[in-house]
Amino acid sequence: LRYATDLTVSRVTTTIDGLRMLPQSPSRKPETYPPLSLRTKNFYAKAIKQLTAWMVREKRLEHDPLLHVPMRKVETDIRHDRRALTDGEFLKLVEAARKSTKSVEGMTGPERSFLYTMARMTGLRPTELASLTAASFVFGDDSFLIVEAGYSKHRERDIVPLHPDLVPLVREWIGQLHNGTPLFPFLEQRKTAKMIRFDLEAAGIPYQDTDGLYADFHALRHSFITRAWESGESPEVVMALARHRSLQMTMRYTHVDRSAQVRAIKGMRSPLRKDGTS
């Protein structure tokens, strides 16, 4: 398309419907990557509609050609609704993987165990984890890792702080690597869902709970963001840790369980006590 007048509802809708996740591996064909979620497609639709609406306001177009671009019904998306793993479940998962003598998707048990630990304690996505090398880490009083813009979902360079308990594990792991070797070689070509489902079963943790929620690989990111939310930090800090552009997106990743709600209720000051104590 060369001109704004070339924009039509059918062209934009067809283009958005064909969008897929960005390829990170040169050896993998773009068409083999999964399509974007309906929610993400809606974001693209809103963005292009905002552009043409602005052009009408600025009198660059006489009328809005994309006024009737349809929005997708997110509730019909068949993607999994996820849950956050409890700390106890996570420890069982990494221990089951660490003790495993079977290779899954080309990764040994200890390799999978460390992968789960990195995902849970940093909130990184698989493509971001796949980009990490020894050079990605900076150690000091406040250690952190760097995800370069080409691998970050929002295409910006991210600086991710490291939990103190994670630092010695990372130091030990990268001490075994050759210069420039990724922490998780060829991860972008491996099926993380297959890995974690194998280790969940070994740990006795249901892949799908009684509420129909899934504990797949991306649930580790949900777990990270949920624990960040429960830390008591401000919503803005949690949103920054999640590396989201909106608090609304972060809230979709937080899963406050019933026990946390009970603690919150018990911690509230009671209006029924005249002395004001809780």
Largest sheet: 3 strands, antiparallel
Overall, the morphology is globular
Computed over alpha carbons, the radius of gyration is: 22 Å
Strand and helix order: HHHHHEEEHHHHHH
Q: Report the β-strand fraction as a percent range.
A: under 5%
Mean pLDDT: 85
* Helix/sheet category: mainly alpha
Termini gap:
64 Å
Give an account of the 3D structure:
By secondary structure, the protein is mainly α. 42% of the residues lie in helices and 4% in strands. The protein is built from eleven helices and three strands. The chain has helices at 9-17, 38-57, 87-99, 109-122, 126-130, 167-174, 192-203, 219-230, 235-242, 247-251, 258-267; strands at residues 137-138, 144-147, 158-161. The chain has a three-stranded antiparallel sheet, with no helix packed on it. Helix 4 (109-122) packs across helix 8. It is globular, with a radius of gyration of 22 Å. It starts with 8 loop residues before the first helix and ends in an 11-residue tail after the last helix. 26% of the residues are buried. The mean pLDDT is 85.
Task: Give a brief rundown of this model.
The protein is mostly helical and 278 residues long.
